[in-house]
Design brief:
Order of helices and strands: EHHHEEEEEEH
Number of domains: 2
Strand order of the largest sheet: 1-2-3-4
CATH architecture of the largest domain: Roll
Oligomer: single chain
Radius of gyration: 21 Å
CATH class of the largest domain: Mainly Beta
Strand content: 15-25%
Length: about 160
């Protein structure tokens, strides 16, 4: 067995979330807000007064749109429980029974985990990101253990 591939046992419920995208999203959001606040404070009174309500609304709307995108990235997760796996990618959620999942893959260089389903389709799991390195590899081993052992006792 290769190093780091020893079998694991996982109790459920278990939630996997990506660390890198969450940190990047939170930092990017904070930087964007701080940049806009300092930019506004840096304007002189004449410049601030020349900004129309439509321009302010446009900037605020763009900020909200960027915030919604960042929120979609940081809310990605995979939640395993007694009955199956819930995959949340952005604002879309999908519930899978353990019997539906036949394979778990994270090839080198892949952005996130891919699940092979019994019907021949695949599902991306953005909650386990390849960029998280060893954390992602551990999550893949845990998820494979749950998929390969659907009859294993699972804690409530």
């Amino acid at each position: 067995m290769p190093a780091g591939s020893e079998p694991v046992q996982v109790s459920v419920p278990r939630t996997w979330r990506p660390m890198g995208p969450r940190i990047a999203g939170l930092v990017a959001g904070a930087v964007l807000v701080l940049m806009m606040v300092f930019l506004w404070i840096g304007f002189d009174d004449a410049t601030r007064e020349s900004v129309t309500p439509f321009q302010r609304g446009t900037v605020i709307g763009l900020g909200v749109l960027i915030g919604v995108g960042i929120h979609a990235l940081i809310r990605c997760r995979a939640v395993a429980d007694q009955d199956g796996l819930t995959v949340v990618n952005g604002y879309r959620s999908r519930r899978l029974a353990w019997e539906q999942i036949v394979g778990v893959h994270l090839p080198p260089g892949a952005p996130w985990v891919t699940l092979d389903l019994a019907d021949g389709t695949t599902v991306s799991v953005m909650g386990i990101q390849g960029s998280d390195g060893q954390r992602a590899r551990t999550a893949v081993r845990e998820l494979r253990w749950l998929v390969d052992r659907p009859d294993a006792p699972r804690d409530r």
